Amino acid sequence: MLDATFEVIKDLGKDASCRIKDFGTFKVKERAARTGKPIKGGDPIAIPARLAMTFKLAPSFKALLNPAPAAAKAEPAKAAKAEKPAKAEKAEKAEKAEKAAKPAKAEKPAKKK
Question: 9: domain CATH number?
Answer without folding.
Answer: 4.10.520
